[in-house]
Amino acid sequence: MTLCPIHPRWTIALYAIVINMALQVSAQGIADPVRHPVIAVEGGNFCEAPDWTLVFNDEFTGDDLDTDKWLRFYPYCWNQDDCLYSRTHGWPRDMVIYKDENVQMTGHGTVKIIARKGPVQQWYSASSSYTSGILHSRFKFGRGRFECRCKVPKSTSHYLWPAFWLFGGNDGCSEIDILEITADPSNHYHHALHRYNSTCDEIDASEEGTMELHDLSDDFHVYRVDWDMWFVNFYIDDALVHRSCRMYDLLNRPVSECDVPGGIYIQNQAFPAQEAELSIIVGMGIHDGLYVNAMGGPATIPDLPATLEIDYIRVYQH
Q1: Of the candidates 133, 120, 11, 22, which has an alpha carbon nearest to the alpha carbon of residue 72?
Q2: 26: pLDDT strictly greater than 50
Q3: Domain boundaries, the chain
Q4: Residue 11 clears pLDDT 50, i.e. is over it
């Protein structure tokens, strides 16, 4: 288990910190990391009590998707679903066009998101022979516990891109990637934090990692993140696999324990904005590559059609 890897970007010379202290030190417990790279805190126990209350869930029972909870596109346009990126999102790196019919309720308590190859289709200026599906929550949520029980597709190639993640906020968006298999075989688990620029269209800071596990397509697994003021903890089936920390000490060591001495600390620039409210997104893309393109060639992508099957999604808050 890896806890709080050190990113080279956060290596700050001690003399620079001392020079900036007078301007940047803040006693605000919820000071945003981007606006306050260095903060002063009082000592204490920084781990929050596990008193969770269920505030949102979908168990995907019945025959029809609950469209009061979910969109099947990215609502990034003026009228939500009327521009290129509402149904292409990561185009052209993500080669698919997202279609409603690729999100299928099973009638047995799960929903399937299916990526497939077919005739070339058009969405605004994008043309692709690959389609897939997406679920984007109509609601946004602040800090809490987010979990999804799902079964990822078997992948033997470097093209499938199943993901369960959180995104949003204003004036510098935040992103928490709870589950990603980023164009890798299905035994490669990826997690990440990203902070964006003021227009939310370019990443300014990241903390991320990939670890080799058993093949995650073998069964359903519960992917979870507990996001609180000081830590973002990533779990698979209740086992902690990574802890992202909000603070580093002045020697650039992660502050990963609950009991924190009072003092001056460096803030992790990739940590989510404390007051951010994020949307839940789950779906599957198809990554481009050297030997494939959106028109379906020249190489064949194995493992298609591919299915990401979701049992439930739940959100808890204090």
Answers
A1: 133
A2: no
A3: 46-247+269-317
A4: no
> pLDDT (tens digit, 9 = 90+) per residue, 98-130?
999 999 999 999 999 999 999 999 999 999 999
List the one residue out of 264, 283, 284 whose CA is nearest residue 23: 264
- Rounded distance between C-alpha atoms, residue 279 and residue 260, angstroms: 31
Model pLDDT, residue 198:
84
Q: Collapse the DSSP code of 234 into the 3-class scheme (helix H, G, I; strand E, B; otherwise coil) and give the result.
A: strand
247: left (phi over 0), alpha (psi -120 to 50) or beta: beta
pTM: 0.91
CB under 8 Å, gap of 24 or more: what pairs does 238-241 form?
A: 240/1, 241/1, 241/189, 241/191, 241/211
Closest alpha carbon to 318 in 209, 200, 205, 227: 227
**Topology (CATH) of 46-247+269-317:** Jelly Rolls (2.60.120)
Does 178 have pLDDT greater than 90?
A: yes
**Residue 114 Cα distances to 131, 187, 209, angstroms:** 8, 19, 26
